[in-house]
Amino acid sequence: MDRYVGVAEPVLGDEERSNIAEVLDSGRFLQGPYVEEFEEKWADHVGTDHAVAVTNGTEAIQLSLKALGMEPGDEVIVPSLTFGSTATAVVHQAGVPVFADIDRELYTLDHTDLERCLSDETFAVMPVHLYGHPAEMEEIREFAAAHDLYVIEDAAQAHGAAYRDSKVGSIGDIGCFSFYATKNITTGEGGIITTDNDAIAENLRMLRSHGMANRDKHVTLGYNHRMSELNGALGTAQVDRLTGFNQRRREISERLHNELADLDWLEPAAVRDYVEHAYFWAPFEIQPDKIGMTGKEVWRELRERGVETRHRYNVPLYDQPVFENHRGFNSEFPWSANPNSHKYDLSLPHVEEVVGNMIGLPNHPNLEEEDIQYVIETVREFEETI
Ligand SMILES: Cc1ncc(COP(=O)(O)O)c(C=O)c1O
């Protein structure tokens, strides 16, 4: 192997380092100026009145559900192809995730499947801007408005993405981001919640800090999900660089798409002309019948040739044991608190066609020209060398 090109790498610079040193010297690790500055910059970037920083993206979703007033047994419609915590966050808040199919071209929540998922208990719809491409928010919002549902954007993979000129995180009632180490920008671990609603923002600030309205009063059942100053110090430096990072991700991803377009076994994912893609991934759909291999085999073989790829999601959420085996309110999932008899032995057609076949090629801003060339050549020669 001439080279090994990794799929994700945080890009950290002098400002991140000097900010961290300053926090260490100051001895102030919580609720200090860096978290506040990060929140202000993030709200400004997304275009919302508020941004509330928390410990990670999963807690961002959980606190959002709680701040919106979700009750035990309430249902939240989620796509079936996403990271687990989109749905486990619902269960942690005593809600029931209802699994919808995905759009066959975009891999995001299929708005035409929402009607099937609707019940009297439906509380919210949670689209995920998967791989950095925004979900079809216009249709999803219309459906939610018609049925009086909240819209929670899971934007954990889509920093800086936009849908019809609105940044993701500003389109639904609430937006949730993650700053995990592999994301377009990182705080190590971290998350943030965006909203225009003053009361919800106030509630979120209390919920993340022990439910306290002031230092003497616990007014609601809260948590300790505050972001530390160390994470905030990274975040405030990273947010300034997001647009530049995303520009580079776009250039690399478009180049990969163009230069590999003639390979019949590797289909580049669609990009709508009314969105700005964040290119968290440079996503491709493997055609197993054309290459004669499964997605997992392609992922493994490419890695052996020095090209690491992302390869997810490989199990639909409705097949994840966590939901089947979960007990709550003294009954099996879905719980007896919920009067509906949703079936969880699902097999949704688009999910079943796609699952296991998605890979993301390396596209992070640290890549050198030689790395990109190596990825292109390795993938182009792949068919001949297996
Ligand atoms: C779509 C999606 N939602 C939620 C999360 C959870 O974020 P975190 O890892 O920060 O808890 C992730 C993963 O990072 C994700 O990809």
UniProtKB/TrEMBL annotation:
<keyword id="KW-0032">Aminotransferase</keyword>
<dbReference type="GO" id="GO:0030170">
    <property type="term" value="F:pyridoxal phosphate binding"/>
</dbReference>
<protein>
    <submittedName>
        <fullName>DegT/DnrJ/EryC1/StrS family aminotransferase</fullName>
    </submittedName>
</protein>
<keyword id="KW-0663">Pyridoxal phosphate</keyword>
<dbReference type="InterPro" id="IPR015422">
    <property type="entry name" value="PyrdxlP-dep_Trfase_small"/>
</dbReference>
<dbReference type="InterPro" id="IPR015424">
    <property type="entry name" value="PyrdxlP-dep_Trfase"/>
</dbReference>
<dbReference type="GO" id="GO:0008483">
    <property type="term" value="F:transaminase activity"/>
</dbReference>
<dbReference type="InterPro" id="IPR015421">
    <property type="entry name" value="PyrdxlP-dep_Trfase_major"/>
</dbReference>
<dbReference type="Pfam" id="PF01041">
    <property type="entry name" value="DegT_DnrJ_EryC1"/>
</dbReference>
<comment type="similarity">
    <text>Belongs to the DegT/DnrJ/EryC1 family.</text>
</comment>
<dbReference type="InterPro" id="IPR000653">
    <property type="entry name" value="DegT/StrS_aminotransferase"/>
</dbReference>
<keyword id="KW-0808">Transferase</keyword>
<dbReference type="GO" id="GO:0000271">
    <property type="term" value="P:polysaccharide biosynthetic process"/>
</dbReference>
